[in-house]
TrEMBL record:
Transmembrane stretches, start-end: none
Name the UniProt record assigns to this protein: Polyisoprenoid-binding protein
Keyword presence, tRNA processing: no
Entry superkingdom: Bacteria
Domain Lipid/polyisoprenoid-binding YceI-like span(s) in chain numbering: 36-200
The keyword Signal is annotated on this UniProt entry: yes
UniProt-listed Pfam families: YceI
Signal sequence, start to end: 1-22
Keywords for this protein: Signal
Length: 202
């Protein structure tokens, strides 16, 4: 064997890919680092659920959110949240239905491409929970909505090496109040919203 090739193979055998090591996530909300955060779009998802003709529940997802969070755990009332979601990203795993939902009779993505939530008040309700009230703009209509948010954990993302916060939130809206009236009430007016979100410190 060529001695240069042998040397190269020997050196390669000593190279071991560095393992990805994650520290234990911190679930203590009071220990969160204060600062400004940007939404991690790749790890954030909005889900909506409706009752379908009284027979079953049906849900869809809205990926691709973007936004910002300003947070100080010592002064939670001062927190500011601004998140936008492209409604054309809607996915139900049914291509025909997805195309219908972005049309004029539902989300009307051509005219109203973005759903946006801007917080106006944050009230602490527990050690790791809060009610986040804000203005939700959907289908060209803006109305106040309250989301029940819970802090999941904080950690340095071992892949991106960025300090990251994780939250969940749930809420309920009546879609007809936002002008989305198709098939109501056969497809329920009341729409459940569930959000999982990650925010990266800037």
């Amino acid at each position: 064997m060529n001695r240069y090739l042998a040397s190269a193979l020997a050196a390669a055998s000593l190279v071991v890919a560095a393992p990805i090591v994650a520290q234990q996530a911190d679930t203590n909300a009071a220990a969160v680092q204060a600062g400004n955060y940007a939404l991690d779009s790749a790890h954030t998802l909005v889900r909506f659920t409706v009752d379908h003709f009284g027979i079953s529940e049906f849900f869809g997802t809205l990926p691709g959110a973007s936004g910002t969070l300003s947070l100080d755990p010592k002064n939670l009332a001062s927190a500011k949240l601004d998140v936008s979601v492209p409604v054309a990203s809607v996915s139900t795993t049914n291509k025909t239905l997805d195309e219908e939902l972005v049309g004029a009779e539902w989300f009307d993505a051509a005219q109203y491409p973005t759903m946006r939530f801007v917080s106006t008040k944050v009230v602490k309700t527990g050690a790791s929970t809060a009610d986040v009230t804000g203005n939700l703009t959907l289908h060209g209509v803006t109305k106040p909505v309250t989301l029940k948010a819970s802090f999941k954990a904080a950690n340095v993302n071992p892949m991106k090496k960025v300090y990251t916060l994780g939250f969940n939130a749930v809420g309920t809206i009546k879609r007809t109040e936002f002008g989305v009236t198709k098939y109501a009430p056969l497809v329920s007016d009341e729409t459940q919203i569930a959000i999982t979100a990650a925010f990266e410190k800037q």
